[in-house]
Input
Amino acid sequence: MENAPAFALDPRLAAGSDAVAALPLCHVRLKRDARFLWLLLVPERPGLADLRDLAPDDRTRLWREILRADAAVAALEEGGRRPDKVNVALIGNVVRQMHVHVVGRFLNDPAWPGAVWHHGVGPERDPAAQGRLIEGLRGRF
Amino acid sequence: MENAPAFALDPRLAAGSDAVAALPLCHVRLKRDARFLWLLLVPERPGLADLRDLAPDDRTRLWREILRADAAVAALEEGGRRPDKVNVALIGNVVRQMHVHVVGRFLNDPAWPGAVWHHGVGPERDPAAQGRLIEGLRGRF
Output
């Protein structure tokens, strides 16, 4: 495997988000966009785009990590409230490197009840609040 | 379990789509919208919305069925071409009954590279073409 290509996080996924945890398969990042509780799960493997590109063991790992992320986001509080719904998606039409969105949604968020992918980028969360959310997430991963 | 609530497919999921297969967990349906190769997977269980609502065995079943649907859509041909990308999503903000979208996308489809959830409803596929796609899918599930 000496000549296997190395994994490198796509800078478009790194931008505007902070590292939360390194799970057995995925890097977990929290977007700074204050409108949503928006996690990204990025499998640390080179050259993945679609689910069928994953090795069998990694398929199992990814699902386990999606389920953990879903539960972690659902238990978070923002402004004293927990999300009303969690959205999970693998799209990757623009940034091809495989990444899974796990997004806590609120009935009063600006995209509700629509999906979040046509709503541009919102204001950044206050760094202290972002830090608290990350600490809370770390306790759940 | 005599008094357990019965499963009933939400009519908003049934509308505009045709039955493809009944898997161990999910009903699989193909939307008639001619713009996309758009499957819906609906777990046949009452009262589910988010992933954490699933019983442990059903979590495993759902992932297996998502992976099968991803592979089935990726192998389909429409107009002599296979999809360039497959999008997978669990959203459920409008229709709360759990359903997973598995959508074959083309570089020249009208929503590319955006997501498909803000693009209304397109013209229906020709019934003969829809029937051929369903036959092809049945051979892969």
Remarks:
- Strands of chain B lie at 17-22, 26-31, 37-43, 85-90, 100-105.
